[in-house]
Design a protein that fits this description.
The structure holds two protein chains of two kinds. By secondary structure, chain A is of the alpha/beta class. Chain A is 33% helix and 27% strand. Chain A has a single domain, classed as 3-Layer(aba) Sandwich (Rossmann fold). In chain A, a hairpin with a 2-residue loop joins strand 1 and strand 2. Chain A starts with a strand and ends with a helix. Chain B is built from twelve helices and four strands. In chain B, helix 2 packs antiparallel against helix 11, helix 3 runs antiparallel to helix 4 and helix 6 crosses helix 7. The chains are: A alpha/beta, B mainly alpha.
């Protein structure tokens, strides 16, 4: 579904991703793990077209999406949940969802489906998103990404700063999305979440994928996490 | 009590000052709304904004003089075509100049200073230094009555010179309608939603399919088009001249700094404050005093509330 092949990405003269390759498949959760500054968020932004790829290609469902204008990428069916939620704080819940619906031809159906996953948002549609609780804001970021009607979801630390009950709710939502057949790339700091949901895990160090393993192997041998991440 | 009677006796002059203040506020609000819109969405301080105001007036004169015939027909044509032409030119300038410096705040200031001189001197070469006038589409005087106590009895009379121009009333009403429509569009239309999302976080907006480059070009076009519209509306009252943008730019900056850069509501309120203050001080004292007070207001705002009266700190 998604194939990232040998991409290089740099911030000005500083190379961040070097010859990085990975794939994401339908109905599968790929967890991207690495220490701070390893290049996880940069990888997500490069896939979304928010950073220029200086070498290599990104293809999605057979279409090359590397170096197309960033606003075209979501029209291919890729939803993005950025690190730190990045809601449009002064806009209402409904307006945030409407921004997500920009690329859709039948927005009402898509929005209804997104709200069905998070019914709590239905009563908050006219509330400014910056006034929501942290958990509700995370629900909204996921719902906004679902408004793109995505086949692939990129989630960059969606449970950051949430209380345990909300973490479970978001984790359940991610598992539901996998059952719905969506491909998911998840960047996550919480190792319990990774062990609970991962189908495959890719470890990134200094802008390169250094090891890929399947979720079952990791659950059987969690010491790999300590070896790679020091946790 | 004597002061009250003196104030009452000055009533006709105060009324005229308030009316002229409302006219100035209307034009300033249109100008400054454009400047504020461009800064709010794009974070670009458009130093050439006054030149688009001048271009609007010059283009309107050219269109009206080419069409000729009835002043009403030629003016209406100019009112529609000139802002569209200037807006389209501004959108092209955004794509060819401002985009090329990556909307960097410092470099866009330098770029728009360059544009200011290019537009100004280009107009001088093509249009000449002679001020050009356009006849208003209509201009009737509406007399206003006043009351005076004569031998203990209030009597109505028509003071000499106490009248307002219907064209000036039209300018005030037009500005109110345009600004209300702009406000409504920003909060209720899809285009307004796209602009506000881009203003709040352009990177995230792109990740949801918003073509930020096109939004910027459109916003710059609309912002400069508003300045051009103000230039067209003021043309039958003043005259088109290649240097007319300088003072308009200064007044617009005063308004947006006091109101808060990027704050739409603050800009409108500041335009009313500056328009009224300027007009009253000009009529009762002198234009120099009016300018000193406006500049002093800016200084006070910058010292005590640098974000402007209604502005908020942006991340």
């Amino acid at each position: 579904m998604l194939e990232v092949r040998s991409i290089n990405v740099a911030y000005g003269p500083v190379p961040v991703l070097r010859d990085l390759s990975l794939t994401a498949n339908q109905g599968e959760i790929l967890c991207l793990l690495g220490r701070n500054g390893a290049g996880k968020t940069t990888t997500m932004k490069a896939i979304m077209g928010l950073l220029p790829v200086t070498a290599g290609t990104v293809t999605f469902q057979g279409n090359t999406i590397s170096n197309v204008p960033a606003h075209i990428v979501p029209t291919h069916g890729i939803g993005y949940i950025p690190q730190g939620r990045k809601l449009f704080g002064e806009l209402t819940v409904a307006e945030n969802l409407a921004v997500g619906l920009q690329t859709r031809k039948s927005p009402q159906r898509v929005m209804d489906a997104a709200l069905d996953m998070f019914p709590a948002l239905k009563t908050r549609l006219n509330q400014r998103s910056e006034t929501l609780s942290g958990g509700e804001q995370t629900m909204l970021t996921v719902a906004r990404a679902l408004c793109v009607d995505p086949h692939l979801l990129l989630l960059d630390e969606p449970t950051e700063g949430l209380q345990p009950s909300m973490i479970k709710a978001i984790r359940d939502a991610i598992l539901q999305l996998r059952r719905d057949g969506k491909a998911i790339i998840l960047v996550e700091q919480r190792m319990d979440s990774v062990l609970a949901v991962a189908d495959r895990v890719a470890f990134i160090e200094q802008g390169q994928i250094v090891e890929t393993t399947d979720g079952d192997s990791l659950r059987a041998n969690p010491s790999l996490l300590r070896a790679r991440l020091g946790v | 009590m004597g002061y009250v009677w003196q104030l009452w006796a000055d009533g006709p002059t105060i009324l005229i000052a308030l009316f002229e203040g409302a006219l100035l506020a209307a034009v300033l609000a249109l100008m400054a709304a454009g400047l504020s819109l461009v800064f709010g969405v794009m974070r670009v301080v458009n130093v050439a904004h006054g030149e688009f105001y001048m271009l609007g007036a010059v283009a309107a004169w050219f269109i009206a003089s080419q069409i000729g015939g009835s002043p009403a027909v030629s003016f209406v044509a100019a009112l529609i075509v000139a802002p569209l032409l200037v807006g389209a030119l501004a959108a092209m300038i955004d794509i060819t100049v401002i985009k090329k410096v990556n909307y960097d705040p410092e470099r866009t200031i330098v770029a728009t200073i360059g544009l200011l001189y290019i537009i100004q001197q280009g107009t001088l070469m093509g249009f000449g230094a002679v001020p050009r006038a356009v006849e208003p589409p209509f201009d009737h005087r509406i007399a206003i009555p006043w009351w005076e106590k004569v031998d203990g009895v209030w009597e109505m009379y028509w003071p000499w010179g106490l009248s307002i121009s219907t064209y000036k009333v039209f300018v005030i009403v037009a500005a109110i309608v345009i600004i209300s429509a702009l406000r409504y569009a920003m909060t209720h239309s899809k285009a307004g939603l796209i602009m506000r999302a881009t203003q709040l976080d352009s990177e995230t907006a792109q990740a949801f399919g918003i073509p930020v480059g096109r939004v910027y070009a459109g916003v710059f076009g609309v912002g400069c088009g508003l300045a051009a519209l103000a230039g067209v509306l003021i043309l039958p009252i003043q005259q088109a001249h290649y240097l007319m943008g300088g003072e308009a730019l200064l007044s617009s900056f005063i308004v947006v700094i006091i109101g808060g850069l990027g704050s739409f509501g603050g800009t409108i309120i500041a335009a009313i404050i500056i328009g009224m203050t300027d007009s009253i001080l000009t009529i009762f004292f002198s234009p120099i005093i009016a300018k000193i007070v406006a500049t002093l207001l800016v200084a006070l705002v910058l010292v005590f509330k640098p974000t402007g009266l209604f502005g908020t700190k942006r991340q």
